[in-house]
Amino acid sequence: xxxxxxxxxxxxxxxxxxxxxxxxxxxxxxxxxxxxxxxxxxxxxxxxxxxxxxxxxxxxxxxxxxxxxxxxxxxxxxxxxxxxxxxxxxxxxxxxxxxxxxxxxxxxxxxxxxxxxxxxxxxxxxxxxxxxxxxxxxxxxxxxxxxxxxxxxxxxxxxxxxxxxxxxxxxxxxxxxxxxxxxxxxxxxxxxxxxxxxxxxxxxxxxxxxxxxxxxxxxxxxxxxxxxxxxxxxxxxxxxxxxxxxxxxxxxxxxxxxxxxxxxxxxxxxxxxxxxxxxxxxxxxxxxxxxxxxxxxxxxxxxxxxxxxxxxxxxxxxxxxxxxxxxxxxxxxxxxxxxxxxxxxxxxxxxxxxxxxxxxxxxxxxxxxxxxxxxxxxxxxxxxxxxxxxxxxxxxxxxxxxxxxxxxxxxxxxxxxxxxxxxxxxxxxxxxxxxxxxxxxxxxxxxxxxxxxxxxxxxxxxxxxxxxxxxxxxxxxxxxxxxxxxxxxxxxxxxxxxxxxxx
Length: 503
Fold this sequence. Notes:
- The protein is α+β, with helices and mostly antiparallel strands.
- The chain is built from 18 helices and 17 strands.
- The protein has helices spanning 8-12, 42-47, 54-58, 63-68, 114-141, 147-155, 158-161, 186-200, 204-209, 212-215, 218-224, 228-239, 350-375, 387-416, 419-425, 427-452, 464-478, 483-496; strands spanning 5-6, 15-16, 19-24, 27-30, 73-77, 173-174, 179-180, 245-248, 264-267, 273-283, 291-298, 301-308, 313-317, 329-339, 343-344, 377-378, 381-382.
- The protein has a five-stranded mixed sheet.
- Helix 5 runs parallel beside helix 8 (186-200) and helix 16 (427-452) runs antiparallel to helix 17 (464-478).
């Protein structure tokens, strides 16, 4: 921390190898011992020794770099105050459009109550402190989500929140009592999902590795298990973090075309078990899971059963374009014996998770571009002074706001409809939003790289969020149903409801 008041003249004298000081945002840094460790080489620091390096620094770095090396500060310039606002854990972004409008003081929303704001505030602090650092480390190393983080999320009720509203929330205290589980509605669900995504947007592999398999599979157990005691046992094991679960539907033969599934489940002669044979591919989290909610062909058509890891079930990691932290898996079932009581129904919650994720990640990328264009100086001007850059930003902002408004409208309809009505009336709009949101991601990713230039193609430094989004946004266009298939679903549902009268 700063502990002395210094003049610019005194700083200017410290410009040699024996004593190298520099000024950034009215703070004085002694980098004498840091020169050799500087990632950009010694000459960069020596060139600005004894000078004000504020513009040069922010033309290359984020504020978080200074926070990392705050121990190098030895004082402040006499009579001057810092002009740069430091982001602290839990803070809202003050960048225009950096947050959804309901989190912006000058705007109001009919959807969000005080409980939603309390939950958002608690989750923002938790994700900034506990989740974001782990996400970056796991994304970089490819390591899977650590058990201690799972335990913290379970204790805070975050794992429960990831499944959405329902009876499983009853009696659960969320985020140390910020709200109780009975209050939790679809807008709380939306808040939780978007806060989790915001903290992991530049760690897309870890984002899916963060129990994404659970969010799209445990719902089927909770909604459609035939035995209440067995259902509660599975739910308790998973929501406590003791066991892991994933959804195993996709095969090399069947993606969006679920009817093409070839994995079979044949009943034994005594009718007490299924014998499962086949393979599954691109299964998120499957590497470490204990339970697999699996799509199979039975004698009556397509069915879903819960398979516990055991003899005859093998998982092999698959390398994809994002981090191994996702635990993407190839699964082989070789005469796996499963009790017939493990038969389930199926519920499509995965699409809602993807929608919230890609829309919030798109906003974070847009925020990064707004900050960078206001910070980066080229040809003697800020990037934001260039009309062509402002036009790109305008397109990005428009996509973000349109998608958020559509998502909130659908979420509001969900709060008023039972699940059966949601399936009937909202499948089409959700499919159309998925298509538009992932097309928006395509546009935003493209414009973001153009704004960031070479940094947008680099996995570290200023452009890491942009590079990650540009490399991985296609996962959202494919997972949960290809955007073309879901867009077609929306149109077909609309045509189905067309009146018989002619125009």
